[in-house]
Design the sequence.
């Protein structure tokens, strides 16, 4: 069950005095530090991997199509895991991002949306360091978001035809 941050805090906060009553002060201190504002960063740092949010500003129809395709996929992977794989494949030279499509008019009923994915910070830094040379080599501008969107679409089978069916759902 998905919970909001507030619900999670409200559920976990009563555990602090319970842990103290049972002689588990170290656990109570750790829980208090995680429940404090910004406390989640303690977890992230202790896991050894620093991830970075990559906000993808895309059409709502595309976001919905990607999320539905990921939910229906036989191999269940998060959108973040798919993007991370795409970044790794670009860095390895195993996948080339396609030329970005030109801008098209937004369909009636569609709107802009943000799809947030997270990727390992070090991988993103490596990719950012190579974007210029990759763009020069390919002859078109290559961006982190362009790579992420193209790889998600390819891996999840969200073709222009699939996307068109989502656009039709949004029409008034």
Sequence:
């Amino acid at each position: 069950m998905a919970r909001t941050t507030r619900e999670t805090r409200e559920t976990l906060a009563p555990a602090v005095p319970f842990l103290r009553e049972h002689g588990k002060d170290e656990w109570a201190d750790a829980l208090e530090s995680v429940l404090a504002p910004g406390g989640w960063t303690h977890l992230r740092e202790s896991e050894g991997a620093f991830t970075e949010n990559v906000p993808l500003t895309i059409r709502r129809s595309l976001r919905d199509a990607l999320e539905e395709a990921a939910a229906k996929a036989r191999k269940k992977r998060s959108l973040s895991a798919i993007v991370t794989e795409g970044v790794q494949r670009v860095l390895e030279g195993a996948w080339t991002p396609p030329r970005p499509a030109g801008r098209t008019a937004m369909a009636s009923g569609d709107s802009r949306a943000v799809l947030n994915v997270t990727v390992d910070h070090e991988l993103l830094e490596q990719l950012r360091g190579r974007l210029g040379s990759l763009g020069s080599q390919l002859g078109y501008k290559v961006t982190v978001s362009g790579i992420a969107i193209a790889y998600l679409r390819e891996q999840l089978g969200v073709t222009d035809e699939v996307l068109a069916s989502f656009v039709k759902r949004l029409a008034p």
